[in-house]
Structures are given as structure tokens and as C-alpha cells.
Backbone:
């Protein structure tokens, strides 16, 4: 499963430690890895701008000033992004 990364561009072995071919990470580690992968994508800056425009539109639609607009959970970047690509 991880044979393609055992000898990587950095010269060392990487992948799960021990005989197992899988490993378990915490929810926080998963979210950090997810954000890193997402932010490493070449189109991330465009998505980030689209999300900022979306938030501005929501503020205008509710006639709230930027400091007074509370972001709903589904309007945060990750849920918004999932909805965009679905």
C-alpha cells in the first residue's frame, strides 16, 4: 500500500511505523492534514477569494456590518467548500 513512498524524494523511509499498513490519527491531526492539503492546492487562493466574496454577500444581504455578522457553521470555509465541489 505504501511502497511508493518508502523511498521518497527526501531519501528516507516514511509511512506507518511497524508491520501495519495503516495508522490512526486524531481528529485534530486529520483536520490539520486536511487543511494543509487544501492550502497546498494551486487553486486555493481563488477558492479563498470566492469564499470571502460569499461572506461579503451574506453581510450585505443581512444588512449587518462586518464586525457584527456572525458566521453560521455551514458558511465557514470547509463546509462552504464541500458544498461548492459537491
Residues:
Amino acid at each position: 500500500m505504501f511502497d511508493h513512498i518508502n523511498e521518497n524524494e527526501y531519501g528516507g523511509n516514511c509511512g506507518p511505523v511497524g508491520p501495519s499498513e495503516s495508522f490512526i490519527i486524531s481528529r485534530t491531526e486529520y483536520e490539520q492534514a486536511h487543511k494543509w492539503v487544501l492550502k497546498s492546492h494551486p487553486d486555493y487562493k481563488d477558492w479563498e477569494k470566492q469564499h470571502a466574496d460569499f461572506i461579503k454577500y451574506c453581510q450585505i444581504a443581512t444588512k449587518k456590518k462586518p464586525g457584527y455578522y456572525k458566521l453560521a457553521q455551514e458558511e465557514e470555509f470547509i463546509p462552504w467548500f464541500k458544498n461548492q465541489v459537491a
In short: Residues 72 and 79 are 10 Å apart (CA to CA).
